[in-house]
Amino acid sequence: MPVARVSAGQAGVRGAVTPWGEARRAAADAARRLPDETVPLADAAGRLLASPLRALIPVPAFDTAAMDGYAVAGDPPWRVIGSVLAGGERMAGPLPPGTAVEIATGAEVPAGADAVLPVEGALRSGDVVRGVVRIGRHIRRRGEDCPRGRIVAAAGAAVTPALLGLAASLGHDTLTVRPRPRVAVLVTGEEVVAGGLPGPGRVRDAIGPMLPGVVSWAGGRVTGVERVGDDPRVLARALTGAASGADVVAVCGASSRGPADHLRGVLDAVGAELLVAGVACRPGHPQMLALPPGGPPVVGLPGNPFAALAAALTLLVPLVAGQAGRTVPGGSRSSIAGEVRAHPADTRLVPVRRSSRGAVPVGHDRPGSLLGAATADALAVVPPGWHGGPVELLELPA
Ligand SMILES: Nc1nc2c(c(=O)[nH]1)N[C@H]1C(S)=C(S)[C@@H](COP(=O)(O)OP(=O)(O)OC[C@H]3O[C@@H](n4cnc5c(N)ncnc54)[C@H](O)[C@@H]3O)O[C@H]1N2
Ligand code: MOO
């Protein structure tokens, strides 16, 4: 459904309010997918493959001894005519029948060898060795694990430590991975302090520490958290500064209409288009999504920390996930086991814990308190006027 677009100046805190589901879709629709990146293996850890991973070489790349012992040809006894070490010189010609070479695990088995006789089963006397072997035993044949050209992991697969090791063993120095959108965070509020015990009238910044995990869960990364106080000129300058080198700017606080809430005015002054001017949800209704001309999208998160989390899941996560080429981490549906009152006009986002009885509200869900969200594993999405029945559960970043 098309979303009404307004300038920041036209929109009030309760004016041009977008229904919750529509706001999420608008954020996803506003996301322009960023280009994939080709990065050295070490930088690819934890990313998602942008294209299928192919074997550039067969595995093993050559017939390989799987045991320390003797590579033997023909029937015993075998005359020992040399030795081959892993990484050492390969034999010039094929191993003649009735001969053997000492061989190390990982060394290339000479052509003509029928098997490797492990040293534990070898009876050596002078330059003659005896033992019992089965044809092909303890030789890993070239390409038997994986032929050259085979796809070993699909696009979208997570680059785990094992996959990184596999990529290296298949001959890759770099991997092409999905982009990780850069999110610059601006924290407004003269009363907000970054460390220690807050003095009178002050509060600790709870949103700056919370956002990196939310953003990386969505596939992005927070590049910096800057504190900007309540001066609109400082906010305007910081917005311009943050815009260069970021794919999204998230502004925390200053989203409402109070005397120190300047975000709407600053966005209006630069002619930003407001895609979402407010969302019909509790908490988090003053959140917004704006497109300043020539700059990255700006997401306004309310200053109340639980409202900021709810808003981040509503607008920031779909936007970042869309830029990263990911689908938004999926939710599920559940009945609610406990007392929840629906709001007549707004969607309520209620911290719950899953249980065999259904989703149990954990309480402490005031906009200013993260006590509930910190002990919950999901937010129950309670539609306006809800009278019972299963609801969507929105996963909380782990
Ligand atoms: N007249 C109205 N006033 C308010 C409304 C309204 O509809 N009409 N909505 C209320 C709701 S709901 C919210 S949410 C807040 C949103 O306000 P802002 O985004 O402008 O945020 P601030 O006013 O700056 O701060 C609100 C609150 O949160 C504390 N805060 C701010 N930043 C942080 C931070 N980084 N970490 C922890 N706490 C923070 C701040 O001290 C305030 O207590 O507006 C209501 N008012
Ligand atoms: O909606 Mo406010 O965003 O309740 O805290």
TrEMBL record:
It comes from the Bacteria. Residues 184-322 form the MoaB/Mog domain. Its EC number is 2.10.1.1. It holds the Pfam family MoCF_biosynth. The keyword Ion transport does not apply. It catalyses: adenylyl-molybdopterin + molybdate = Mo-molybdopterin + AMP + H(+). GO terms for molecular function: metal ion binding; molybdopterin molybdotransferase activity. The keyword Nuclease does not apply. One of its GO terms (biological process) is Mo-molybdopterin cofactor biosynthetic process. GO terms for cellular component: cytosol. Its cofactor is Mg(2+). PANTHER family: GEPHYRIN (PTHR10192:SF5), MOLYBDOPTERIN BIOSYNTHESIS PROTEIN (PTHR10192). Catalyzes the insertion of molybdate into adenylated molybdopterin with the concomitant release of AMP. Belongs to the MoeA family. This is Molybdopterin molybdenumtransferase. It comes from Thermostaphylospora chromogena.
